[in-house]
């Protein structure tokens, strides 16, 4: 009987500057040191089984037991980890799967076995950017060196020139022209214009804002404010894709973009001590009259 293939790792590398990672710091600032313990526990569970983990209700209960944190708080911390980009948001929302590009890259760099050990469903969890690590490398064929055929006497100089031209032409390589891609704020402008042209998205944004139809005219300015916020907070690496850009905008709008003013409740006017003494004296006189003392 064949020995079952072990998919998990016995250990995995951790960056020495992990505590200075902006994503880790954002989660720690919100939930404290216990959130880092939770993150490392999830990584251990992922690598022990492969390069992903199904975050179903049973796992959340087990995770809560491991780290001694209430299950509801575990879910809140996990949702923030997904929001800041520690785990892939699309796979988590659609399939409740925890993984990330960095997790998968570390896994396939450490594992000699390749994805053939995983079934088609598991391979569907692979993210773009991992393919170069898992594609088998084909070694180039050893060139066969043939001895040159000696030139026969009597060939004209013109034929030698034509032969040399043919050799030169066969060695030429066609280069694909380099087309630079838009990056940073230029790419954000492209995504912003695409969103503003999408009537369905604008209608959805208006409904989520809770500010009425007038918010539709405010959207261009709000998107500009959001881009400024991302730059000023140093979080450019969290909006690498259009989906991240859209998701982060809605999160920013609900937490920072809307300035709500709360009317302060009117405080009753406080009476002076003299006024309180007068009222107390009047009350005593009334009681004395009622009792027939006066």
TrEMBL record:
Pfam families recorded: DUF7833, Lin1244_N
InterPro entries given in the database record: DUF7833, Lin1244/Lin1753-like_N
Start and end residues of each DUF7833 domain: 193-252
Highest taxon listed in the record's lineage: Bacteria
Coiled-coil stretches noted in the UniProt entry, renumbered to this chain: none
Residue stretches making up the Lin1244/Lin1753-like N-terminal domain: 11-102
Name recorded for this polypeptide: DUF4373 domain-containing protein
Lineage of the species this protein comes from: Bacteria, Pseudomonadati, Bacteroidota, Bacteroidia, Bacteroidales
